[in-house]
Amino acid sequence: MTSIIAHRGASHYAPENSIPAFELAHEMKADGIETDVQLTKDNIPVLFHDESLKRIFGINGWINQYTLLELKQLDMGKSFHEKFAGTSIVTLEEFLVWVKDKPLTLHLELKNNKMAHKNLEKITYNLIAQHQLLDKTYFSTFSDASVSCLAGFQEIAHIGWLTSRQRRDLLSYALSIGATAIHIKHTLLRQRLVKEAKKNGIPVRVYTVNSSRLLHRCFSYNVDSIFTNVPDQAFVIRKDIYR
Ligand code: G3P
Ligand code: MG
């Protein structure tokens, strides 16, 4: 059965990558949570999608130009809705503590394709190992080099190569750089590709799947997982299809 992964939490209903978005995803019975990991100026892994602070915090600058203490002073809730005012950025460690006893898988996307975050793989890996959560962690990244770096860690079982670009050798390329799964943009979704991947034991995960039409398509192709901002709607449709 296709698993439903809440993309940046239940981000249609609460500020992306925030504790309220994660709480909601859990309440909506998502199977897992996808979130983006970057490093602050003082090398602390935090959950944040953009490299720039403009969209979420309304200020100039980049995530790696601010210390955690500085970022924690900023409000990332009120740009979404007044009722979330006071929501602050979440560290990876806070998220791990929150998720630890919940029946959720963790999909950690290392955001290092546009901005180089030195040692992001190692820092993230160490923290997850320290919290004994490696068995339910799925790593992913758009960076080919980072996929290969993750493949060097023996204990990491799930490495998704994220891509939005069409190419004939998509599956073999993913394997050649060390990925164990493909995480494709929904525009690349073809039943033929899903079948071929399944035949070769390669999980297919699709982002970002929000419309009813796409949700139906993904469930009917039986992809391994979907990343969605609306886990509640996905849950209803999946229930209907697998009835
Ligand atoms: O991990 C799936 C998806 O999150 C990749 O794209 O830009 O939403 O992080 P983006
Ligand atoms: Mg992401």
TrEMBL record:
UniProt cross-references to SUPFAM superfamilies, sorted A to Z: PLC-like phosphodiesterases (SSF51695)
Limits of the GP-PDE domain: 2-238
InterPro entries hit by this protein: GP_PDE_dom, PLC-like_Pdiesterase_TIM-brl
Pfam families: GDPD
Domain of life: Bacteria
PANTHER family associated with the record: GLYCEROPHOSPHODIESTER PHOSPHODIESTERASE, CYTOPLASMIC, GLYCEROPHOSPHORYL DIESTER PHOSPHODIESTERASE
Name by which UniProt lists this protein: Glycerophosphodiester phosphodiesterase
Lineage, highest ranks first: Bacteria, Bacillati, Bacillota, Bacilli, Bacillales
